[in-house]
Amino acid sequence: MKRRSATVLTALASASAAALATVLAYGMPASAHDGGGRTGAQQLGDPQYGVCRGLDSGCYHNWGNFDLSKGIKVLVYSRTAGPRHANLGPALGPGLNPPLADANVAQKALVKLGQQNGFAVDWTEDVTQLASPNTLFKYNAVIFLSTSRDALDDSAQTSLRQYIRGGGGFVAIHNAFGTEYNWPWYEGLLGGTNYYDHGPAQAGTVQTVERNDVSTKNLPNRWAFTDEWYNLDPFPSNVRFLAKVDESSLAQGVTGSMGHPGHGANHPVAWCQYYDGGRSWVTTLGHEDWAFTNTSTSDGARYFQSLIVGGIKSAAGAAPFCR
């Protein structure tokens, strides 16, 4: 009996150790606090990024941190610690909502789009404004607008992660894909992918591949646009693809200086997913100044603006997400 009891205790200890190792590797299983209802691999999390991610709304944490009755408010973050896109204009001063110059085209355009579409916009390039999740919880979504390289310090990284885990919304526009290269959690937030390189900026044709989503429902099946057409690596995974570029429409091709490793002719430019408790809506588009300011459809600017407005609203929880 003693020998059998010892054997049982040894087996239980081994099982407990294995369970603990699984939790440490993949995260806690679902509970009533984080939405529940997950099955299989989703219950334990993505084995690569250690979080619940994908298209199952059970990956969303509805902890009541956001009150839409007070209106929608978003924070635009455009700090650059490397290359800076021309449409961002000169670097912004410290604090929240510093003065915007005429050359701060993209930031001013998002403020205007918010005014036209029912959401308030704050803006900053001051990393200390992201240092506390309590500060970020004032916003229904945080927008990374062509940020670059190591745009976050340790405090801001922790704060962003806690914000997302608390049910926050995240929107990535253009060079947000050229940001935080060495942080796997952020790569997962982008859809398990990141910027690799790009070919020349050139005119092409965007194909709308998902018409049910709020960000794409008003777009035509095909529309003209000009961009750098980022190459990605690895190929995005466990996401809903919303739009892609028809590579056959690119006269100069898409291959950058280091090849085209992450995808073939199936070249996505916008997608969405639930990630680690939050909502993530992303697009690689947004290189040109006029894409944010023109009101025409012949160059695709109005369609691009409709795309990102819908993405912002859905990530913020003001419209159905990732349908």
Automatic annotation (TrEMBL):
Tell me where on the tree of life, at the top rank, the source sits. Answer: Bacteria
Task: Name the residues that span the membrane.
Answer: none
Outline the extent of the ThuA-like domain. Answer: 104-296
Which InterPro entries does the entry link to? Class_I_gatase-like (IPR029062), ThuA-like (IPR029010)
Keyword annotations from UniProtKB, A to Z: Signal
SUPFAM superfamilies, per database record: Class I glutamine amidotransferase-like (SSF52317)
- Entry's Pfam families? ThuA
Query: May I ask which residue range the UniProt record assigns to the signal sequence?
Result: 1-21
Instruction: Please give the name of this protein.
Output: ThuA domain-containing protein
